[in-house]
Amino acid sequence: MKPRAxxxxxxxxxxxxxxxxxxxxxxxxxxxxxxxxxLPWLGLGTRAEGVQSASLLGFALYTGAATWCFAARSAxxxxxxxxxxxxxxxxxxxxLR
Length: 97
Prior knowledge:
This protein is mainly α.
């Protein structure tokens, strides 16, 4: 059986770093937007409280997403996980707008 060709270790690390920085930021921004719209809609405070709570939760989500990028089995899984979660948060934000 032929070994599977993989990218150089530096490319995989660079991809994970970019996923953590850019993908994590995009996911946190989309999640904060969705939460800022969802919290008042659910009756959990005013719009201002929803924005403030969503912003604070966005920082925690960004940290978790960045950590997860390095815990994923591959860089591709990290990117796909961030993309899937981002699409879900974006869909919620669009539906609640």
